[in-house]
Amino acid sequence: MSILNYEKALDSSSDEYDSIFLESQIYEISSLYEHKDLKRDFMNLKSNIVDLNTANIINCVTGTEQDFLMLMNKAKDYLETTSGLNELGKSKVLELFQDCVFGYYILTPLLRAADVSDIKVYSWNRITCKSNGKRYITNLSFASEDDYNRWFDRILRIQRLNFSEDSSLQHCTDRKGVDNFLLRIDVQLRYVVSTEYNNIHIRKIPKVKYSWDYLKDNGMLDDDMIDYLKDRIAAGYGFLISGRGGSGKSTLLNNMIDLIPYDESILVSQESDELYSETHPQIQFEHTMQVRRDGVDIFFSLEDELRLGLLQDIDNFVIGEIKGGEALYCFTTAMSTGARFFGTIHANNAAGSVRRLCHCARYISDYSVETLEEMLTATPFCLIHMSFFSIDEILEVEGWDPDRLQLNYKQVYLKQRGRA
């Protein structure tokens, strides 16, 4: 829509404005917590075993397996004496109870949904998700604000996170909480949130990588693109994948690293353990870490890992998400060692991702943007831009134009407007 037509739309019809901007799509998903035959017995069990015995529940959450068994037996005994459910019904209620106390409670159906990549909780009755790159409001809700806060406190304890003002922003990775996914968990405590609600964001990383067929069926790419990636990786091209959060960058990169020839060594540096491989024999995975010794915080950064990697026999450097000074090594490694790099970055288009990469590198260097861009021509290089879990654009760097002081690009692919 042009600016002119946009203004006409605002002038002529507020209803049209509402239909364009103010309607949210609902992600409908069924939940056993709302099952008509189970909800009443679950709520009674929760009220009498969980809500009335907060201190006991906390001890069970942080305690031993014996504490867990004692609590579950207590819940089972309560159902036996108060519930009219059959054995199957009692078993289901106990599953709901266990996940309420020791798991992800109301969020469980979203965590099990294969198409959902991200879950955000803004308040007890505002839960959103991203499915196949699109954002939705869900039909799920906690029973009350108090119900949400009690669960939030339990999940912090389970993940060994703190509930204090000086720990208002925290993150962790849950490798065991859900069968099919690793969970990257980011929390913002109410001390730092303007609405005074505790917020939580969960990014799901499949434990078993999505197959190329799955990515094709969900519209990320087609057979020609897969053949192109295989060819360019075998030919020694490096890759920078750009897009917004949740656009599919890490998913694509995770599959691409398994295409790197098995006789080449790889160093993967990342903040959270999103990239992994069960097949490539020459990959070394590292993540950032912060430790506190004698009252001093020591942080092992992506820059530290990449700097050490330069002293090792590394053919491929992979950066999980580039957003700081670690970008400098994307340029200097190619110039000094001939190694290539793969990485993801937030940018608005493929060509813009290079400029973004340069600005990140300048956080810790005095190189000009032009000098950095010219460095990028030291090895073959490809740019991919993504949105909504789909490849939008592919460019190749074709060299440096000394007159215009800018890179030359070859367009390999551009998604047509309106194309699904």
Instruction: Please identify, by name, the CATH architecture of the largest domain.
Output: 3-Layer(aba) Sandwich
CATH superfamily membership of the largest domain: P-loop containing nucleotide triphosphate hydrolases
Range of strand content: 25-35%
DSSP helical segment count: 15
Shape: elongated
Termini Cα gap:
18 Å
Mean pLDDT: 86
Kindly report the spatial arrangement of strands forming the biggest sheet: 10-9-13-14-8-15-16-17
Helical content band: 25-40%
Keywords:
single chain, 420 residues, alpha/beta, Beta-Lactamase, Rossmann fold, 2 domains, 8-stranded mixed sheet, 17 strands, 37% helix, elongated
Tell me what the structure shows.
With 420 residues, this protein is α/β, with parallel strands linked by helices. The chain folds into two domains: 22-206, 2-Layer Sandwich (Beta-Lactamase); 212-414, P-loop containing nucleotide triphosphate hydrolases (Rossmann fold), CATH 3.40.50. Helices cover 37% and strands 26% of the residues. The protein has 15 helices and 17 strands. The protein has an eight-stranded mixed beta sheet with strand order 10-9-13-14-8-15-16-17, sandwiched between helices. Strands 1-4-3-2-7-6-5 form a seven-stranded mixed beta sheet. α3 crosses α6 and α5 (65-82) crosses α6 (87-102). It is elongated and about 80 Å long.
